[in-house]
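Worked example 2:
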Amino acid sequence: MNKQNIYHLSHTDLDGYSCQLVMSYTPHNMKSYNANYGAEVKSRLEEILDDIKANDKPAVILITDLNLTMDEAKWLDREVNHLNDKGREIKIILLDHHGSGQDSANKFEWYYLDTARCATKITYDYAKENFGLNDVEWMQKYVDIVNAVDLWKQEEVFNFEFGKVCMRLISETRELNRVTFGDDDRFYKLSLLQKAVEFIDKEKANIELDAAIHSMKKEFFMDEEDDTLDNLSTAYIVNLLGQKTDQMTIYYKGYKGFLSYSVGNTSIVGNGFLTKFDDYDFIVDVSYRGTMSFRANNKVSVSQIAKEWVDGGGHPNASGGRINGFKEQYRYDKVKEQIQRLIADRESVAGDLEYKKES
């Protein structure tokens, strides 16, 4: 089977990630994305189209466990047809089970809707027929588990109870921000699901998996020495940030800063980053709502930066503020564009930055 370039967008729940787990057992070149409902769906599809345009090869846009509104479906169909008219070879496949997509499914032949199966089961069956799926021993059992809990089949007691634990495993796995660390967060979740399937044949599978989740998370983040989950995940996040310096570095009035998006826990993560990467003068984390959290380590007064940027303030090494009119984004590059515009506007503010120790 010839390898295809598949751009796979899926939902952010157990069913959505399980579709991606199934597709990871096909021989194709996979690039994966995740979206919740609302504006994020179109934002991710725009990202996919940008990535396809940057790679002049045939492509498949695979959408699972997400129904498209009529406007979204029309837009995507139009964009892909436009590219194909220019000589590209792009195909859309949508596999979903939400009845709210019925109107779109009626209009577009690429929109496959089946309300009797969860998206993971639809994807599993489709991949066996069309994508050369490596149907490993545990996969059918796991697919039936996801199907039972996603369609709330309580009569399938084992599958339903085990599925509930898997559902919580995904919903409560929040250590990595999925905008800043999209690929890493997805790998983390899929790795945990991959470990979860090892419990399926145990006598009290759901109870044993439930008891093991904390250790499974720690094992993922652990390098050498054991520690608390918070400390292990913080060290992991700091290392991930260090791998993104080319992408996430900003400058303000000659000072070198690091811009993160909704990473959170800025006191611990920010100070950890500045300690490890001491060529940076400050770090600022922007939340989905435009709240800014600044940290420094005696090199510059972030209270002054916060004041100049957003009329915020605080202490020289720890300050905050909020951007009026901030537009929530689902892609880091769009966030950075907003902050770079803000910096450009503030660069002309009179006065030099300095660090002043508190008495």
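The radius of gyration is 23 Å. The longest helix spans residues 205-221.
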